[in-house]
């Protein structure tokens, strides 16, 4: 396997980001975070239809590696990465097999959908380290994992298996990387302008601002697109649609 600490591969219109520090169980450091920001830019510019975020075995991401960097600098970089994934116009899919702890759980929470093996362990052990998680992350955990799960993770440092989180809806599918890649391929065939509009609306639910104008503009763009016409024609012809994002 490549010695690069983070990899970006392309499967047609699907981008695959792999955290690749197996000897450190893919703990993310500042260099990896900066690379991810650049990858997010490339993914956006290349108009990826879906993104899969995964980790090289034996873990997804076991946390943060703050070696040689001030904590404030690291957390600013981590925040940029987390917000960057939520800002991508396509679906981001987590493919988790193994530990997703601390920063790993944060990365998991910002993915739009999650494919996790049943025995994977997810948690935020900040209370064991004397740390307080940023409020943005806490809000995200509450929304994505449910208030009771977030409370248990943050206040008792409890962990959950993938199977347990699947039971409460925080994990969407039990499966491995191949399962996630297959789902990404299916998602990549959906209408990209629709995905973009829906994602903006979903990401804006918790924000104290009026987003009707933004979502309205994206809705109008989608309705006037060639994809909208193609979707209707394919439906009437009883054939799969061929969406181009235009």
What descriptors fit this protein?
246 residues, alpha/beta, 2-enoyl-CoA Hydratase, Chain A, domain 1, 2 domains, 6-stranded mixed beta sheet, 3-stranded mixed beta sheet, 10 helices, 47% helix, globular
Specify the biggest β-sheet: 6 strands, mixed
Q: Count of helical segments?
A: 10
CATH architecture of the largest domain: Alpha-Beta Complex
How many domains would you count in the coordinates?
2
Give, in spatial order, the strands making up the sheet with the most strands.
1-2-3-4-6-9
Mean pLDDT over the residues: 92
Point out poorly predicted stretches: none
N- and C-termini, Cα separation: 37 Å
Record field, number of beta strands: 9
What is the CATH C-level name of the largest domain? Alpha Beta
Strand portion, in percent? 15-25%
- Give the CATH superfamily of the largest domain: 2-enoyl-CoA Hydratase, Chain A, domain 1
> Which structural category do the helix and sheet elements fall into?
alpha/beta
Using the CA coordinates, give the radius of gyration: 18 Å
What name does CATH use for the topology of the largest domain?
A: 2-enoyl-CoA Hydratase, Chain A, domain 1
Order of helices and strands: EEHEHEEHEEHHEHEHHHH
Structural account:
This protein is an alpha/beta fold and 246 residues long. The chain folds into 2 domains: 6-187, 2-enoyl-CoA Hydratase, Chain A, domain 1 (Alpha-Beta Complex), CATH 3.90.226.10; 192-237. 47% of the residues lie in helices and 15% in strands. It is built from 10 helices and 9 strands. It is globular.
């Amino acid at each position: 396997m490549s010695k690069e600490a983070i990899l970006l591969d392309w499967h047609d219109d699907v981008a695959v980001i792999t955290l690749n520090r197996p000897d450190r169980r893919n703990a993310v450091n500042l260099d990896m975070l900066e690379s991810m920001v650049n990858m997010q830019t490339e993914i956006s510019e290349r108009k990826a239809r879906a993104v899969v975020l995964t980790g090289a075995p034996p873990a997804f991401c076991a946390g943060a590696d703050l070696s040689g960097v001030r904590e404030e600098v690291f957390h600013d970089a981590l925040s940029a990465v987390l917000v960057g994934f939520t800002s991508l116009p396509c679906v981001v899919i987590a493919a988790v097999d193994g530990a997703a702890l601390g920063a790993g759980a944060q990365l998991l929470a910002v993915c739009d959908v999650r494919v996790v093996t049943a025995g994977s362990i997810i948690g935020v052990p900040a209370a064991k380290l004397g740390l307080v998680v940023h409020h943005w992350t806490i809000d995200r955990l509450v929304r994505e994992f449910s208030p009771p799960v977030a409370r248990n993770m943050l206040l008792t440092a409890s962990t959950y298996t993938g199977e347990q989180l699947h039971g409460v809806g925080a994990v969407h599918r039990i499966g491995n990387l191949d399962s996630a890649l297959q789902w990404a391929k299916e998602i990549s065939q959906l209408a990209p302008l629709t995905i973009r509009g829906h994602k903006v609306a979903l990401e804006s639910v918790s924000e104290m601002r009026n987003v009707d104008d933004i979502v309205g503009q994206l809705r109008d763009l989608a309705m006037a697109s060639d994809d909208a016409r193609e979707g209707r024609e394919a439906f009437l012809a009883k054939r799969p649609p061929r969406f181009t994002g235009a």
